[in-house]
Amino acid sequence: MKQINAILEGVGSVVQLLFRSLSYTGSLPRQGARFIEQCYMIGYTTLPIVAILSFFIGTVLALEAGYAMQDFGAKEFIGSLVGLSMARELGPMMTAVLLAGRVGSAITAELASMKVYQEIDALTTMNIPAAKILVLPRLAAVLVMMPVLIVIANIVGWFGGSVVARYVSYVGISPQAYFAALRHYTKFKDVMNGMEKAEVFGFVVVLVCCDIGLNTRGGPREIGAAVTRGVVVSLILILVLDYFVTKILL
Amino acid sequence: MNTTQQTARVGLFFLLGVALVWVTFETLSDGKIFAERTHTLIAGFDDLKELKNGDDVRQAGVKVGSVQLTRLAGRRAEAVLQIDPKVPIASDAVATIVMSGLIGGNYVAIDMGSNGAPSLPDGAEIRTASTPDLNTLMSEIGGLGKQLQDSLGSFSKAINGDGKAGGGIIQKLDKLVSDNSSRVDATMANLQEITGKINRGEGTLGKLVNDPKLHDELLAAVTDIRSTAAQAKEFVANAEGIMDQVKSGQGPLGTLVYDQKSADDLKASIANIRAVSDKLAKGEGTLGKLINDPGLYNSAQVTIKKVDRTLDGLSDSGPITAVGIVVNALF
Amino acid sequence: METSCSKTRNPFTGAEANAVGVKVDGVSKTYAGTEVLSNISFDVLPGEIFVLMGPSGSGKSVLLRQIAGLELPTVGTVRVDGQDPSLEETRDRVRLALVFQAGALFNSLSVYDNLALYPREHRSGTEASIRERVMHALRILSVEDAVSKFPSELSGGMKKRVSIARALVMEPQLLLYDEPTSELDPVMSATISEIIATLKNEYSVTSIVVTHDRSLALTIANRVGILMDGKLITLGTPKELAATKDPALVDFLYPKIDIQNPRFKKLENQKTS
Ligand SMILES: Nc1ncnc2c1ncn2[C@@H]1O[C@H](COP(=O)(O)OP(=O)(O)O)[C@@H](O)[C@H]1O
Ligand SMILES: [Mg+2]
């Protein structure tokens, strides 16, 4: 009962924060510097880890597919398998997971620290809403940066698959054949589909992590607890949302 | 971190993203940015099989459009095809559903139709034909079939030529024969005369052919030849390698086929054969005597036994002999 | 209230506004069953300097948070210029500044940006005029050298001064100080006293000052309230307070260091045993 209450409270708080942030959308043009800073944090600094992970997801997909398909001569379909699963599912999903781990945790830590050290209170007395200058730029930045991360994740993952397809002995498919199969079965629609998914994930991760950070109570010890909670809740939400968003977008 | 530097990096990063989205878009959707005007054709089938929206429409293997929609229309199934308006589809062109892979991957193939036929207008219905599934399936059998095709391909290239200078063995032989047709004719006449004699039981060979006892022995020899030929088939693959050598002019056979001098030698040999056959007809020489002299009957019998033994030995021997057989068969 | 006609004047723009009063009415605050404030009532008149004193842990900071509208009292009401300070509209209308006990500077911003944040967000003036205001405030508190530093590079006293400067830049009508001189040397403490007095005399800024500094309290205060264990035990002018005979108050205001105190004896015993 207590847990249900806590969940409902959390949902209510997140929804409230969402609407409060959105009500300041008009102030976004004047928050250019903050927006750029958040873009830098969310996009630019997250790129390396996203690229590395995507590359290896691509290779593993190709490896598994090649192994499973070698027996019935369907190796030519590796390209399409890697292409589709990367674009529709694994690209968005893994990028969102990395976002939760890398950006979500940082956001929660920063806002929780601001809360604990009364910086948020100082903003309140100054009548500068945290939703306006702390949450809104982050939400805008994640919406702009997520497609960029996703397209890079896709391309790097596809490339990783092609490397395995070419050099692993039991797969042994030329990059031309690999990419031909990929192109034949993966449509831009699929990439768009993945991006829409990623936008939902990224937006929710940032919003939830902001909310958990801003609702931190107590001393510095609570900052760590808030970060853990932010990441765990984000990961659960990504997995749950994945099912529903996939269903809606299918 | 300098703010302007940060802004520059974010800007660069964003532009990179936009560029990559664009590249992805261009490669995955063949660059159709704005839905360009397309031609629509309706293709009715009894069964659309595995055909799905978005599958290719190809003419002579070239993609000319895609399947926009599949639907049921009364008692038949219809596929709405979107065709590149720059590609005219002849009014008597026929659309078929072709399976391009074992797992899914169908497309609609449209043939060229006849040359002068008017092209189909937008929204028209195209003629269709149903295709036997098994045929396409068989062509996909994969490994074995492909290998077989490859080796047969190089075989026929060796024999028929691949369109490059000189042509293949057959063309060469053809030329050789037509160049020497008068001589060959004469040879043929002589041969006819010889076979006539043989038929009538004249001479040693005639006896040979008309004697039932000898006939049985010959039959045994032929059986041996057959089994040898069966073995020879196994070595076709090896022969393929040698044929490649022949094609590139290596080895004696290659020289023979591709070298003008060898061709001249061959002509000379043919002239000699004519001379020999002339002599044979007149009963001159050993072979002539064999044909014309019944006394030689016995020694011929001995010779045939020897041939028999040779063939026995042949069946035990390796690929080189088999190649010999193949090469002999070609000439 | 008879002084409500007095005007606050913006120290920088000279714009006038009504001086604001504060009304604390029957405020109690309970945290998880523990009562931290119990039934506190007092008025702070517009343009008045109100000093709150009390031992550590008596609830002074909590009371300031209720007045600033950061928290809602469990029982009772707080009114700033007649309105609930926790509402955004009230804070929109009444410029209210709180100097936090620990400074509460924005750690991710430089000192300059800390001070410039408020005028920038509320679009008061050009960047050049904002710069002028910021530098002026820093100069008053002798921390202009720290302008491009980050809070983590400052000492405790510097943080406190920057935090007071940040409050000044807001041009507040109501200024709440939470132990503004606790980490400062006597010279700086005197400067703070001057600032508070000047803001009152020339600009009619209402001030509520939480402090342990008896001399500061007795020199600048119009009235002094003393909090003990969450209760307001005395409320009066510095003169009344100085003349008090209440033993509890005397003990608090003029503590004697007694080496012979049995408490210290106990400590000694513990050490040797
Ligand atoms: N957020 C809080 N939750 C629980 N207890 C609190 C909280 N804030 C303050 N307290 C308690 O209230 C009492 C008064 O605290 P405070 O007002 O900070 O004292 P001071 O008078 O020294 O400023 C202390 O006992 C403190 O433990
Ligand atoms: Mg305190």
What does this structure look like?
The complex is a heterotrimer of chains A (250), B (331) and C (273). Chain A is mainly α and 250 residues long. Chain A has one domain (27-249). Helix content of chain A is 82%, strand content 0%. Chain A has nine helices and no strands. In chain A, α1 (2-22) packs across α8, α3 (47-69) packs parallel to α6 and α8 (188-214) runs antiparallel to α9 (221-249). The longest helix of chain A is centred in the middle third of the chain and has 39 residues, at 78-116. Chain B is α/β, with parallel strands linked by helices. Residues 313-331 of chain B have low confidence and may be disordered. With 273 residues, chain C is α/β, with parallel strands linked by helices. Chain C has one domain (8-246): Rossmann fold, CATH 3.40.50. A six-stranded mixed sheet of chain C has the order 7-8-9-5-10-11, with helices on both faces. In chain C, strands 4-3-6 form a three-stranded antiparallel sheet. A two-stranded antiparallel sheet of chain C has the order 1-2. In chain C, a hairpin with a 2-residue loop joins β3 (22-31) and β4 (34-44). In chain C, α3 (111-121) runs parallel beside α5 (156-169) and α4 packs across α5 (156-169). The radius of gyration of chain C is 20 Å and the shape is globular. The model of chain C is unreliable at 1-5 (pLDDT under 50). The interface between A and B is medium-sized, with 30 and 26 residues. The complex binds adenosine-5'-diphosphate and magnesium ion.
